[in-house]
Amino acid sequence: MKLLLVEDEKRMAQALSELLRQENYDVDTCSDGPSGLEAARGTPYDMIILDVMLPGMDGFQIARTLRREKIRTPILMLTARSGLDDTVAGLDSGADDYLTKPFMAKELFARLRALARRNLPSGDGTLSFGDIVLEAGTASLVCTAAGQSVRLSEKEYRLLEYLIANQGQILTREQLAVRIWGFDHEAEYNNVEVYLSFTRKKLAFVGSQTAIKAVRGIGYELRYEHV
Fold first, then answer.
1. Per mean pLDDT, which range of 55-59, 132-136, 199-203 is the poorest?
2. pTM of the model
3. In the chain, which segments carry CATH 3.40.50.2300?
């Protein structure tokens, strides 16, 4: 699970990063508000741990900006302030949870597990975007408008699942390769292109107006092109 930690206290950032990596999180760190915002915009993280008091831009501003830009990555906000007004301000800014310093590591991990569960597909095992639904139980792609469905291979399913989970964001070929083949992958980039082509053909087969679009020089995004 890929996680962004935005924390300006160097010792705290180092300690948290080490603890998280011991729990098998893949952690990127930033030490100020502007760089944290840029990282959150540019990479589809599974979760963000965001300190409130940051140089350049505070955590409230970052959370509000991300939500305004339709970036839905779960945010756990950290603060040394324990007042109710601060908690409310954090949640109102778009954070999903709020943790007051100092805290125990086991509480942090429990909060992260809870956020991860919230980000799972719906209780019936489906994910949806535009006119398509992914059914986990049957690994099927369904077009709700045309009433057609088709089975997906494991890699096709994981590709569409990742694009839907990060709708509104552009994903690079490297990010797609890591998602499909894992961090130790040796897959060539043309393998990503092959599975993108397979998946596009199945979207066309079911009559969907949802498309995987290439963004020149950057990557790919999912778009619903309803007329």
1. 132-136
2. 0.56
3. 2-118
